Amino acid sequence: MRKSYAIVALMLLAVATACAPSTKITGSWKAPEAKAGGYSNIFVTALTDKLVARQTIENDIDAILEEDGITASSSFEIIPPGFKATPENKEKTVSAIQAAGHDAILTVALLDQTSETRYVPGTTMYSPLGYGGYYGGFYGYYSYYNPVMYDPGYYTTDKNYYIEMNLYDAQSEALVWSAQSETTNPSSLESFSRTFAQAVEYQLIKDGIITK
């Protein structure tokens, strides 16, 4: 009976792992002229008209960066909801970002969203021989402890989100870092946002754009 519980637990773990959302950085680039020693005061802006999503993503990136000593702030005070990026607004906006002490601007934009249906094949799992009184007769053993269990296959649809992150030098406005990420099956905005923010910070550190 103990073995049966263990098998069920392993099967549930496998299902949970297969359905869990995942975020990974698929590629990144760093400009040769990126600031030596990294950036330490970052202005974060998510390019979406969905205000809850924008606020959640910006705040989570800010929080993750600040946990490791990097100053970061959301864009809402300088770029309010409904802001129009017209040529007339450019100088005022950039000047406000610079005046706030930011040395870099991080943008986050959704590039694409796809749905992909795939077939998950069934599994056949062999269980080692049992023990104890079940060896007393063929049918008693066979009916209690079938050595082969089959889990039929099924179709599932994966939702994939592709996001681009760009970092610009606040003074020159030049692009100094860019990366793309892929997220599969996010269960909620909150769980995605935190995982995404951690992945972005990890890549920024790895590429030498920021230092703890």
Helix/strand layout:
Elements: H1 2-19, E1 22-30, E2 41-46, H2 51-67, E3 71-74, H3 87-99, E4 104-120, E5 123-126, H4 138-144, E6 148-151, E7 154-169, E8 175-184, H5 189-206
Parallel strand pairs: 2-3, 2-4
Antiparallel strand pairs: 1-8, 4-7, 5-6, 7-8
In short:
Helices cover 34% and strands 33% of the residues.
Helix share, percent: 25-40%
Distance between the termini: 51 Å
Strand arrangement within the widest β-sheet reads 1-8-7-4-2-3
Radius of gyration: 25 Å
Strand composition percent: 25-35%
Order of helices and strands: HEEHEHEEHEEEH
Mean pLDDT: 82
Envelope shape: elongated
The structural class is alpha/beta
Number of helices: 5
Largest sheet: 6 strands, mixed
Low-confidence stretches: 1-20
The counted number of beta strands is 8
What does this protein look like?
34% of the residues lie in helices and 33% in strands. By secondary structure, the chain is of the alpha/beta class. Helix 2 links the parallel strand 2 (41-46) and strand 3. The longest helix is centred in the first third of the chain and has 18 residues, at 2-19. The radius of gyration is 25 Å and the shape is elongated.
